Amino acid sequence: MRRWKHVFKLDPDRDIDDMALERICLSGTDAVMVGGTTGVTFDNTVDLLSRIRRFEVPCVLEISDREAIVPGFDLYFIPIVLNAGDPDWIVGHHHLAVKDFGPMMQWEQIVAEGYVILNGNSSAAKVTRARTELDTADVVAYGRMAERLFRLPVLYIEYSGTFGDMELVSRTASSLEGARLFYGGGIDGADKARQAAEAAHTIIVGNAIYENLDRALETVQAIQDVEKGCL
Ligand SMILES: CC(C)=CCC/C(C)=C/CC/C(C)=C/CC/C(C)=C/CC/C(C)=C/CC/C(C)=C/CC/C(C)=C/COP(=O)(O)OP(=O)(O)O
Ligand SMILES: O=P(O)(O)OC[C@@H](O)CO
Ligand SMILES: [Mg+2]
């Protein structure tokens, strides 16, 4: 996970045909993450996992619903929304899930993500009642809390559905000393992928898969170009 530069996020609540799924899984992306804010069920998650498992790409579940925790993923990513207005999305659902699953959890498969949600119009912001009116200093402070207070391995800056402020992302990444900065939101092609990859450690491409697959696939090569430029 610490070496991932590019991840595709597939939503179990959205349709993807076999050909498109094959192109995603064979694209050269570092991993496929399964997740979404609404409409994620046990059944649609099992279905997507079994289709992805025809390929060798690492496959992780980002849990957003306790009813849709499916065995068989390589890793489980657990969002903790640091700027949630409703504490259930910081510790509440997690507490109930650990109460149910605690005895059978393989903790080495668990990756906790400190989320900061910055697009107030996104489903994730609405569900968690996120306080999105934040400036760079606020987000840097959340980053320091994530890695220093809570020892989280990942800070996820989430602009889901819109392309964010890369200056803010870059300054936050620079302030982290060990945690990885994941950036997701509005990466719809190579140009935005390059900008995001210059600011963050790992970029996540979601909606573009469903909106323009060819352009979404170009983001993988764009990351490789940024990497070569850094050598
Ligand atoms: C045997 C077995 C199965 C063992 C498994 C054990 C295991 C892994 C247990 C897990 C225990 C645990 C701590 C679970 C957490 C439970 C939980 C529900 C936590 C809350 C997560 C959370 C804060 C969700 C809020 C929403 C959110 C941040 C979702 C993340 C994904 C996201 C933002 C997607 C974007 O959504 P999208 O649908 O694309 O949005 P748009 O419509 O805007 O595009
Ligand atoms: O869907 P987009 O806007 O690409 O965002 C990706 C991801 O961060 C969503 O959780
Ligand atoms: Mg989405």
Keywords:
binds ligand L4TTDIOY, metal-binding, binds SN-glycerol-1-phosphate, magnesium ion binding, TIM Barrel, binds magnesium ion, phospholipid biosynthesis, lipid biosynthesis, 8 strands, EC 2.5.1.n9, 231 residues
Counting DSSP E segments of at least 2 residues, the number of strands comes to 8
Number of helices: 9
Give the total of domains: 1
Helix content: 25-40%
Mean pLDDT: 97
Work out the radius of gyration: 17 Å
EC number: 2.5.1.n9
GO molecular function: heptaprenylglyceryl phosphate synthase activity; magnesium ion binding
Family: Belongs to the GGGP/HepGP synthase family. Group I subfamily.
Pfam families: PcrB
Structure write-up:
- The chain has 231 residues and is of the alpha/beta class.
- It has a single domain (6-230), classed as TIM Barrel.
- Helices cover 39% and strands 18% of the residues.
- The chain has nine helices and eight strands.
- Magnesium ion binds at residues 11, 36, 160, 206-207.
